[in-house]
Design brief:
Mean pLDDT: 87
Shape: globular
Largest sheet: 6 strands, mixed
Strand order of the largest sheet: 1-2-3-4-5-6
Number of helices: 5
Oligomer: single chain
Radius of gyration: 17 Å
Strand content: 25-35%
């Protein structure tokens, strides 16, 4: 079954994806980018503290405009979220556990990054979605037979190794080494998808960094 999704923005300048017109995953964009979806949202899921995923101003506005909206995140974001909204709007979601919201079940999965981070498995009636960005590996994580995979494909492995070699030769500190350690390559993304996807499944590449690497992702 096809899962409805809208990638509002992805990459180092901001991340936000809407699923089924009801769930926003990541909130690293200005509030005006969310206006077409704001009234239909039922749940916001956050992954980690970096500003291209966690825009405090937007979160404050969302919480104020939609006081009944739920905001789910790992415990590492509890304090930052409490600065943006009433604590009663916040759901602390622990990786390894499942949470039933009625219209969707949410399963956080811990990811490896330079800040505490998680991805999400989401089970809608008749449709399952896997979401993961900003991670150095997906080793040990399975999402067999999901209908939609939204997974980071940050860089080509050989391309980024060559950029590291070139910068080292010029005496420069290679940002690309950090990207290689903390973000999935296209090859890693493909390996995960091919190991899990069924013939009818769909996948979308997320979070490809651009430019010279100036990012908080």
């Amino acid at each position: 079954m096809r899962c409805d999704y809208e990638v509002i923005r992805t990459g180092s300048k901001g991340n936000a994806v809407v699923l089924d017109n009801s769930i926003l995953i990541d909130c690293g964009v200005p509030f005006k980018s969310l206006l077409p979806y704001c009234r239909s949202l039922r749940l916001v899921l956050l992954t980690h503290i970096h500003s291209d995923h966690f825009n405090r101003a937007t979160l404050r506005t969302l919480a104020r405009e939609r006081p009944m909206l739920r905001f789910g995140a790992g415990p590492w974001l509890a304090a930052a979220l409490a600065e943006c909204m009433d604590r009663g709007q916040i759901d602390i979601l622990m990786p390894g556990y499942g949470y039933d919201y009625g219209f969707c079940s949410v399963y956080p999965v811990r990811l490896s990054h330079d800040a505490p981070n998680c991805g999400y498995k989401l089970h809608f009636p008749g449709c399952k979605v896997f979401y993961a960005t900003d991670t150095g590996t997906l080793s040990g994580i399975e999402a067999k037979g999901y209908d939609l995979y939204l997974v980071e494909a940050n860089h080509g492995a050989e391309e980024i190794r060559q950029r590291i070699r070139d910068k080292k030769a010029e005496g420069l500190f290679p940002y690309e080494r950090r990207a290689m350690e903390n973000h999935l390559s296209v090859e890693q993304c493909n390996n995960f998808i091919y190991a899990n996807i069924d013939p009818d499944g769909e996948y979308v590449y997320l979070h490809a960094h651009q430019g010279n690497g100036e990012t908080e992702g």
